[in-house]
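Why does residue order matter? Because the sequence determines the fold. Keep that principle in mind as you read this record.
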Amino acid sequence: MNAPAPARRPAVYAVCALEEIPNRRARAFVLARAGADGAPRPWPIFILRWGRHVRAYENRCPHQGVHLDWERGEFLDGEGIRIQCGKHGALFDLGTGACVAGPCLGEGLVPIEAVIEEGEICLAGVDLLEDEDEDSGQGAE
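Structure:
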């Protein structure tokens, strides 16, 4: 009788150190995911830090698919209490990503599971391409 296979732990990808994102701020990243054809595709996201809590979302407004930051790396409204789309002014709840005002009311941002492990902000439950997964085009890897 074969022993059951051990439970597979989902991949966790370190993105940056917790201290690299100031408290009550957000930072944009462009990571790489495999497209349907297997080729690397850019995946723009942003990570919010609130003390020792982090949230991550795709950097895409549900209204028209544009990036949310109203200036490079600026995602929060003037009061710092909501995520604000720079294109149409839609406001989103920090914790849930739900649109609370604007043209996409009732919709929400695409959340990404983010955890803190050993002082690093990590994404879980996603398949990313890491640098060593990509062919540099410089010959045998």
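The chain has no helices and nine strands.
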